[in-house]
Records
---
Amino acid sequence: MQRFLVITGIVLLALGLLWPWLQKMGLFRLPGDIVIEKENFRFYFPIATSIIISIILSLILWFTRK
């Protein structure tokens, strides 16, 4: 459990530090992401981004367990 919490903290720290770079890269504006914009309303549902992040996290956890 301690190892999991340390790895989670390191990943969150890395994401926080890389956040400006990730936004410039266009990670959160993929073709599979749903964006609905109206006058006073904006709905954003990142389906493709969630799938990519899930795959990356699964690979990282798979490599750390081996």
---
Amino acid sequence: MSVGVHFKQYQKQTGSTLILGLFILILIMLLGVTAMKVSDTQFQLAGNLQFEDLAMNNAEAAIDAGERWLAGTTGGTKNYLNAGFTTAATVNYTSDGGNAMTTKLYPLASTPDPFTDSTWSGLQVEANSNQSYFIQLASTNSSLVGSNQATGGRASSGCSKVNTYRIIARGTSARGATKFVQSYYSALSC
């Protein structure tokens, strides 16, 4: 007796499983590449937001420096009474820390353009700083709100006149983000 091995005859294969498998692998690869691109874009956006926040923080710090300069004194004279406000002038002074600083003062009715680089040249709050500001005289001898006789019932014996100043600050960051902040400051003029 002979024992024979019988093989089943299979129909001819067309290879559709192989093609379908490759198509699914290509789709998965494209999804992975897209996910990586989206992730990288979101990472860059988050970094840009951080640099914009840094620029805003620098601008706000420059506003603070400008307000401190106006509130302070140089040579026994209040800085807001500085003669530099009569003509566009650059005033050099020293901060509490001893760093040389520069302030640009603009007179009443002047129109400095904060969007030109020449306005900002040499105005860093400290050496190699990303903070700068300038101060413009906005009004002189204005009446304080609520300081007249009709409000309080009697005339005030103190000073009720103020000078107002506009402080414009610019902050930049390492990637070139730039933010501008503007503040108004008032000081007694008498």
